[in-house]
Amino acid sequence: MATTTKQVKHKGGRRTGGVKALPFFNGQKGCWYYTQNLRGTRKAIRLVDQHGNPITDPNNRTAADTAHRRLLDHIASLPVVEPGAPTVRDFAIEFLQTCEKENRKPTYEIRKKMLFDLCEGFTLADLDKIKKAGGKVPAKIAGRRIHSGLGSKPAALLTIEDVENWLDAHANWGQSSRRQAIESCHRMFNWQVKRPRNVRQITFNPLKGLKKPTAVKRVTGITDEQFDAMLAEAQSSTLTAEFAVALQVLFKLGLRPSEFAKMTAAHVREIQDKKGIPRLLITYEPHESKNHKLRQIAVNESVEHLFRAALQKHKTGYLFRGHRGKPYVPASMKRTFARIRERVNAAGKLQVPSGTSPYSLRHAYAHRRIAAGVTCEILCQLLGNSRDVCWGTYSQHYAKFTGVPDVGFLSF
């Protein structure tokens, strides 16, 4: 008697048992996946398009198959990592050594904070405590660990998904912090890729395609009335009377808070204008300016007496200082500004927006120049910005005014 084999028709959906599983749609998560088999361990991998976006259309199998093939090709192209291959921690330490020598201190501190967090899962403050404890992690600090850390992972095998999981572990990070974190990772790998061939340890950036969030533009200015209220409040207290000078200089000259804080008597010199009247000119050399170009700022007549008084008082060292005689730093200026703003708002006569800071005085200066008819080219010179940065920041304010002339004016 002949035997027959019952044919079982595959009903679709997920296929199991094969080494090369086909893509499947996960209805619960709403996107396509495929199962990766690695050393007997199966893991569901989400499929994304060429822009890094998940494929969410359940009927678009063609896109899922294309993404599947692209991912398999990428996995096949990954280098075979041998024992002793450089880790993410090795790359971070080496990159930060160069960064400390070549970058400004604030930039270095940001890179250090982000990359040590990526590698160890602790904040810098906790890492210092662990170091003092001889490398042992106290129980109190262990409970504060943010994530397991990626420092021991081979650098060539770090994936975008790894970094995204790291970012998601920091629920309190905003758009700016996430941007700094992603940029620090990209800088580290791109620096390694561009090194001379004899010392280069990797030939590609494994995070290529990981995009940074759009930068948040700091364009909040303050009105003349708000500035007058802030100035009056600062002058009313002996603790903030010196800071009233900083408010006036920033508001009238459009300086960056960092430029004001680092200014010395050597930066200011006396010149004569076209009428032969002595005036003051601030000069920052290319290596001192943000865009690495010569930056010159004419001192407005309304604050010239403040400069001359400071030059008499501090002939060497920093020109402007706080009430205790210590130099300003942008962070402390921001805190003092916030305290004065809170006192003004508590008085109830008018409200200064909570998002304002010393940098808002620079924006207010730019807004006044635009309203006066200064072109973008002249505004770039006044602010020490490139045209792209200047136009990208203030283009919406130019739209409010018509008939902008072809020439601008300086302070003298």
Protein described:
With 412 residues, the protein is mostly helical. The protein folds into 3 domains: 47 residues, no CATH class; 106 residues, no CATH class; 175 residues, hpI Integrase, Chain A. Helices cover 45% and strands 8% of the residues. The chain has 15 helices and 6 strands. The strands form 2 sheets. The protein has a 3-stranded antiparallel β-sheet, with no helix packed on it. A hairpin with a 5-residue loop joins strand 4 and strand 5. Helix 2 crosses helix 7 and helix 3 packs across helix 7. The longest helix has 19 residues.
Question: What's the layout of helices and strands?
Answer:
Elements: E1 24-26, E2 31-38, E3 41-46, H1 61-77, H2 88-102, H3 105-120, H4 124-132, H5 139-142, H6 160-168, H7 175-193, H8 224-235, H9 241-253, H10 257-261, E4 268-272, E5 278-284, E6 295-298, H11 301-313, H12 330-347, H13 358-371, H14 376-383, H15 387-398
Antiparallel strand pairs: 1-2, 2-3, 4-5, 5-6
